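Posting this for the archive.
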Amino acid sequence: MSTVLPSDGGLFIVKAEGDSKHHLCQGPKEDNIIAIEPDGDLLIQINEQPGESALYYRVSSIVLQKASPYFDRLLDPKKFSEGIVFETQLKSLKDSYPDVTMAPAAALPVVHISDVGQIPARYPCKNVITHFFDILHDTNSFWVMMGSLPNHIALLAILADRFDAAKPVLDHITDQGWTHTHKETKENKKDSNQSSLRSKEILWRQRIFAGIILGVPDWVMSYSRLLIDAGSERWRTLSDAELNVDDEAPWWYLPRGLEGKIMLLVQSDFQ
């Protein structure tokens, strides 16, 4: 249950009871705003790290609701208090400006989202979140890749899973020609260098994880086979501390029971 409170600035704030994942808040400074949609009617506030200045993404509420069932529910005034307050603020804004596009960005309604999914702490969120919102708006804007292509796609998959937007992300990577499966050679698979094996396992796990979330079965099957053949560093260690996992990256814990299924399959092969 949530309580709607007027703020000192005349806007409204949602005080959510028992839900700290998102709420509405005051507007930002103009230089902290990233314009995904220059004529957008909503700001999404995201704090990358505790204590750091928040970033605000100017977006179209209509586009978000069409692209993501998560945002469709969140901004629906019949379902969530965030939707009620957003609708109230938007009506107030339209009373002040003949067209919302004429309003300064800092005056737009703001939704604060504190949980963007299990993105590892060592990866700055800004670039991949910007790309994610660009994908939802189909802007074809310039964006910065976070590390390797499999790594970047895996980070997009984390956001797609969190915000229920697997289809537009899959459509985007398909249009980009990124859904091909790399064929490992026998020489590569037999490489015994520990650093090389770890790098390959991370790549394979990122592909498997993204394949599960986005719906690319060829990635799941092909890279699971490579992981089974080579063995996993995770399966050979006794604890997460020994494994030194990548800041609890979700690809070290393959979702939907796949990690356990693969381990059982490997164990049965040795019996």
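Confidence is low (pLDDT under 50) at residues 1-20. The longest strand covers residues 2-6.
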